[in-house]
Specification:
Number of helices: 3
Distance between the termini: 37 Å
Helix content: 25-40%
Largest sheet: 4 strands, antiparallel
Number of domains: 1
Strand order of the largest sheet: 1-2-3-4
Length: 117
């Protein structure tokens, strides 16, 4: 049965507002805290995790990643379609500066698929 637009999504927190998505994986603005969470669709239950401290940080970080991709051009990935290590390192350094720590950058990049666990 199709879900009607005015029906709440099961297990969805009323505090959450989806502000963007990547392949159906939502970036969620948590209104009470001002932080941005990230969730994976299709996991069965919503397990959104903190990703960015606020919307400004999300926007700046995603724009920085986009700039890396554009600057790299066709050489962004290797023959197996993996992001080249030099661009992973550049992204980690850039996001680390923006988010205040290498660990926060690495966590964000893992969730975005830029680094493997």
């Amino acid at each position: 049965m199709a879900r009607l637009h005015d029906e709440p999504i099961e297990n969805w927190d009323d505090d959450w507002l989806v502000v963007a998505d990547e392949g159906g994986d939502p970036f969620i603005f948590a209104r009470a805290s001002g932080g941005v969470l990230h969730g994976y669709h299709g996991a069965g239950e919503w397990d959104a995790r903190a990703m960015f401290p606020d919307l400004n940080a999300m926007t700046a970080c995603l724009a920085a990643l986009g700039a890396i991709v554009l600057d790299a051009g066709e050489g962004f990935t290797d023959e197996e379609c993996n992001i080249r290590e030099e661009y992973q390192a550049q992204a980690c350094k850039t996001l680390g500066e923006m988010l205040g720590s290498a660990s926060a950058a690495e966590a964000a990049l893992r969730r975005l698929g830029w680094q493997t666990p």
